[in-house]
Amino acid sequence: MVKVPWEKLAECPKQSESLVTLLMLRLRERAQPVDGAGGDGGRDLFEYTPERELVLYEAKSFTGRMTSGRRKQVERSLVSAAQHQPDHWDLLVPIDPNPAEQQWFDGLRVAFPFVRRWLGRSWLDEKFASRPELVRYALQESGDYILERIAEARAERDVLAGGLVDYVGRARALHARAQEISPHHEVHTSLGADGRSVVRLVARGSAPGEQEAIRFTGRIRFAADDQQEVERQRRFEETMRFGGEVELTADNLVEASLAGPAGLGLERLAVGGVRITSPRHELTAPLRGQVAIQRSSGIPVSSLPVSFTHRVVGADGGTLHGSDGTGLLRVSLRYNRRDLFCQLKLSFEPQDSVMPQVMMPVLRFIAQSRPGCSMELVCSGDEKGRVSAPITADIMPRGWEPDEIHLWADAFEDLAQLQSRTGQFFPIPDDFTKADVQQVKEILALLDGQKVVLRGDTVSVGVVSAEALDQLADTRSGMFRLTAGYEGMLFTLGQHQMDLGPCTETYTMDKILNMKEARRDIAALGHATAVLRLARNFPAVRYLGSERPE
Asked: Which of 211, 412, 498, 516 has the most beta carbons within 10 angstroms of its beta carbon?
């Protein structure tokens, strides 16, 4: 594992802070770096979350302890950060706080309530452990680093001077040699996300005999006072009973050992972890059915077709896996052969580039999936294959409020209607906001021939002569109307634009708010911008077409 030499990097603070900046840009896709040439204003990066919250990140290269001088630097950064009115502010520094430092940091919230987290050395090391390329980038000009890589390879040819050609050739030769180790198993290797080597042994025959089997022996334990271990134990028990997958760490294994056919050398391996995966059985013909939601009165309110494509089995039963017709809802049916008990689980998995026509029925279904109702699965062609049970938990998308799903279901239905009426079809924009939802409603109203009220209290008009300004000011009724016509009205939704054709806007004003400034600009420049106040009882409106009002 590549370790970050924080103390060495601290000799060049800019290098250390740049490394942390690179990391956060990987972790936070919305984050944007700040050019600190003129002072970073208490932030090295910032981002606007999907909830439109402003989050600032401040990186420091300090190592050792947070001295009084360093604390003052942090406090000065907070004073600068406060000018941006952030919702949250995080400190990233390769120091794990001791109790006194944590108390000082927590006390900062009295004056700066937006202070959120101290992300220290342990947190940074954990994130860099799976991203060694960032550390190599920061140290790319270090000769010592290159020598260390060569020493690890233990041979000069491991530098791979020929590039990918050398790598592919050597990998192919090693793979071919690995297949000669055992006549009973194929050997496949890869690197995991954490940099560890992963070896998969696949039996060459469909049912290896006892002498060719690979055996694992040992005892398994789970720490009762660790919530993560409690959850791991639950997954382990469910995997053994009903099939699935679970990974055990070295801490879970006691006196663990492997044994198998000669030649593999399994007895010499130290077992650092075990991944237990149930065999996956593909269904030759998908098992199709319908999932329906019923109110307590028995009245059905929503349903979706589902299809189960494969199953896994365990000691007590198994689990059928599938999805609805859109692929946005994952469905699993666990059955227990011993007590004839079934459990149906659904999970919502949004995807990129989804059409609103596809998303809308799924959201309608989710909105009705509330505790207090019941869910029923009926398999096609088999009325006896019916499973019904009360709903015990909703499947609301993470971060959504209970009533919000109705809003988005309505929004995607409106968007689908808009696309159908205009004949222009496109996926839901990635940054589709509530402001876009309102805009879609207004476009539909325009297409229905309605007039849409424009927001705002004033309108600005360009004036090119003193006579024109006098005409605006000389109104006996106290109000005057301005009509603007457009050959084409463009609306933008994400990356898509639609032209609604000719459009007209009318404004009724009762006062010029900047007459003195406008006359001065006319005299000096020959043109001016007049700011007109809209009449309170005559709102500005927009409608399609070029017909002018009387």
From this structure: 412
How far is Cα of residue 421 from the mean position of the Cα atoms in its chain?
A: 32
Q: Give, for 258, the enclosing helix (H) or strand (E).
A: strand 253-259
Q: Taking Cα atoms as reference points, which of 154, 128, 151 lies closest to residue 139? A: 128
Q: Which two tokens stand for residue 58?
A: 């401040």
What are 89's two structure tokens?
A: 């502010």
Q: What angle do CA 353, 357, 358 make, to 5 degrees?
A: 60
Tell whether the torsion through CA atoms of 442, 443, 449 and 451 is positive or negative. positive
Question: What is the residue-level pLDDT of the chain in tens, covering all 550 positions?
Answer: 567 888 888 888 887 888 888 888 878 878 887 755 444 455 578 888 888 899 999 999 899 999 999 999 999 999 988 988 999 999 999 999 999 999 999 999 999 999 999 999 999 988 888 777 677 656 654 434 433 433 443 343 445 556 677 777 777 777 776 776 666 678 888 776 666 777 777 776 554 555 567 788 888 899 888 899 999 999 999 999 998 899 988 889 888 888 877 667 777 777 778 888 888 889 888 989 898 999 888 888 899 999 999 999 988 999 999 998 888 899 998 888 877 788 888 888 777 788 999 988 888 888 888 888 888 888 876 666 678 888 888 777 777 776 788 888 899 999 999 999 989 999 988 888 888 999 999 999 999 999 999 888 888 888 888 888 887 777 555 778 888 888 888 888 888 888 888 999 898 888 888 888 988 988 898 899 988 888 888 888 899 988 877 6
Sign of CA dihedral 202, 204, 208, 211: negative
CA-derived radius of gyration, the chain: 33
